């Protein structure tokens, strides 16, 4: 069975940066807190915990130490609160998410009705919401149909698919006078989606590797599923099942932006040894 | 044969206003010049000429009198030149076109790459171009594919179809960071297109009445043609041909925004007397 890994797969710039920043703080031997999981990969988060990083959901009760802001960002109110408490804050927000936060603030300041295309429950979106006086999150064309407004500003969660953004924009464009869109889907997302799409066409089975809580990994799975009917989302090599590959000649692997190389390698080896 | 006129057809607000403004000047018994045809309807332009309005293409050689700016607008340089020559200028530019001109100027001043969705040869578009330091006109998705830029501002010729604007926006959205769109397709255009679409579904033959040089009329014809295979574009009742209606039980009429009521009525009578 031939195994092909997608041209663009695994760790993106923002994830690498967040991990490096956190490890720098760990080196300083201070108490390190991560406000929510640093990235959406349980294996990496577990490794960081072993190195001493404590994952917390609130800074209530924290009196000293360094608070690392997760790669997905948090609402600005949380950062302010940490600083007011005298805690050191290390901002590991992905620079592309940071840019999106700035766009949301600017649109809100300029009185646009802010629309965030994304998932209401995702930490990145929760963070973005903190930058607008008022914003609405939409995740489908049907939700876009309900939006009213003369002057609408749109950003996207950085890990959404371009096609969803386009569909939402098409709907909004029918009824507003001004539509100001920042296409904030990051290049890592676009590249990984393109490579996955390309590879999925040429394989019998497609394996998508990454955290079950990772938005960009789930999107990769959604995309591959529409192209290759035998498509599986796993977090680790141990989850691979022999029966998935009956009659399979070529298997493709892609991985989300928060999936470490060693996990991809383990999956590759497991498949090659089958 | 049953004859049905579309709910929204014929003269729009901007056209009525342009004709009224011109006739007010005529009443003052001054020499009246129209810089290009006031509206895209030869019958109306001819009637105005009989009332004393002279259609000119340039103000070179004009020394006195009143210059009326056509409903489609002109580049601001032309207005300035007329004023510098001491000519009185009456601006009959449609207020919706005026608004589009202001958006083009604002986008250009704010360093957007200005994209005008429309027809390069149409006077409205030629006028709009005068409001930008630099702008590009695109009329199809293929042309949109060639556009590059980080920060793009889009307006539409007021008489384009929403579907074309959406298709162009979809293409641009794939590759720019910021896309700021003013949906300047006017409500008269949208309403006439909607009504025509609705009517075309229920008739055997569809007659579109309006100037051959009228962009919005041509768009109505394009739209009706996709729905009703027996579709004809005429300027006047005399052009109606008996052979178009063999076996026809219901005929629909729509008319562009520059088609006077009396022309629509003549077409209706001609059809009813068949």
What does this structure look like?
The structure is a homodimer of 274-residue chains. Chain A is of the alpha/beta class and 274 residues long. The first copy, chain A, folds into three domains: 2-10 and 188-272, 4-hydroxy-3-methylbut-2-enyl diphosphate reductase, catalytic domain (Cobalt-precorrin-4 Transmethylase, domain 1), CATH 3.40.1010.20; 13-92, Rossmann fold (3-Layer(aba) Sandwich); 96-185, 4-hydroxy-3-methylbut-2-enyl diphosphate reductase, catalytic domain (Cobalt-precorrin-4 Transmethylase, domain 1, 3-Layer(aba) Sandwich). The first copy, chain A, contains ten helices and twelve strands. Chain A has helices at 13-27, 42-51, 76-84, 95-109, 123-129, 141-145, 162-173, 187-201, 215-227, 261-272; strands at residues 2-5, 32-35, 53-56, 66-69, 88-91, 113-117, 135-138, 151-156, 178-182, 205-209, 231-234, 250-255. In chain A, the strands form three sheets. Chain A has a four-stranded parallel beta sheet, with helices on both faces. Chain A has a four-stranded parallel beta sheet with strand order 3-2-4-5, sandwiched between helices. A four-stranded parallel beta sheet of chain A has the order 7-6-8-9, sandwiched between helices. In chain A, helix 7 (162-173) links the parallel strand 8 and strand 9. In chain A, helix 4 packs parallel to helix 5 and helix 8 runs parallel beside helix 9 (215-227). The longest helix of chain A is centred in the N-terminal third of the chain and has 15 residues, at 13-27. Chain A is flat, with a radius of gyration of 20 Å. The N and C termini of chain A lie close together (8 Å). The mean pLDDT of chain A is 95. At the A-B interface, helix 7 and strand 9 of A face helix 7 and strand 9 of B. Strand 9 of chain A pairs antiparallel with strand 9 of chain B.
């Amino acid at each position: 069975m031939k195994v092909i890994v997608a041209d663009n797969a695994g760790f993106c710039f923002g994830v690498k940066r967040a991990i490096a920043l956190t490890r720098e703080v760990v080196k300083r031997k201070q108490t390190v807190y991560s406000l929510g999981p640093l990235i959406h990969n349980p294996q990496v988060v577990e490794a960081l915990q072993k190195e001493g990083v404590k994952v917390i959901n609130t800074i209530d009760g924290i009196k000293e130490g360094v608070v690392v802001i997760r790669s997905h960002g948090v609402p600005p109110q949380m950062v302010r609160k940490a600083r007011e408490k005298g805690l050191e804050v290390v901002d590991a927000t992905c620079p592309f998410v940071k840019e999106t936060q700035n766009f949301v603030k600017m649109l809100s300041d300029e009185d646009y009705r802010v629309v965030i295309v994304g998932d209401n429950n995702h930490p990145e979106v929760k963070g973005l919401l903190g930058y607008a006086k008022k914003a609405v999150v939409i995740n489908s064309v049907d939700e876009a149909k309900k939006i009213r407004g003369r002057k609408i500003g749109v950003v996207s969660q950085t890990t959404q698919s371009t096609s969803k953004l386009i569909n939402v924009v098409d709907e909004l464009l029918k009824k507003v006078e001004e539509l100001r869109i920042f296409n904030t889907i990051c290049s890592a997302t676009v590249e990984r989606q393109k490579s996955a799409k390309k590879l999925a066409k040429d394989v019998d089975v497609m394996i998508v590797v990454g955290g079950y809580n990772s938005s960009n990994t789930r999107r990769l799975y959604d995309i591959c599923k529409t192209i290759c009917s035998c498509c599986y989302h796993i977090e680790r090599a141990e989850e691979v099942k022999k029966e998935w590959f009956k009659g399979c000649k070529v298997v493709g692997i892609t991985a989300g932006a928060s999936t470490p190389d060693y996990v991809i390698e383990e999956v590759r080896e497991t498949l090659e040894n089958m």
